[in-house]
Amino acid sequence: ALIGGLALAAHQVVRATQDVDFLVDADEAGRLDSLLVGLGYRCIHRSEDAANYLRGDEGLDLLYAHRPAARRLLSEAEERVTPMGTLRVVSVEGLIAFKLQGHVNDPARVRDLEDIRALIKANRQSIRFDEVRQYFHLFDREALLDELLAELPPA
Predict the structure, then answer these.
(1) Four-CA torsion 94, 150, 106, 115, nearest 10 degrees
(2) Which of 9, 61, 124, 143 falls between 20 and 30 A from 39, CA-CA?
């Protein structure tokens, strides 16, 4: 399922991005590696959690779903029209969760926080905030969610 910058467009947020990011079943990591190498991609990094590939100036990042929450988000991903055609895309709540994880892992990456702001603003009428709050609780960032929600103009 599509995640990252290109997934934002499927949730009414548009911004430039350098690569394509997918959430994939961790059990498929070896098969996907062989497939991508066969298509001319070079593996830059591969770990238990993620892999990065490059072909010319095309970047492709894979995040492996092996934890229950990530597997659930992958299984619940819905087909959406994207700049790359119709693809499965994680929910807006799931995308916020992955952006939050990126921000927590590297607070200097302010783009993730800006993406969360934009996703909340663009989707505030349809977001399941109880689910979003669970993700912020998981990372001990509930105060950050409260700050983000306080920034919203009245509906």
Answers:
(1) 50
(2) 9
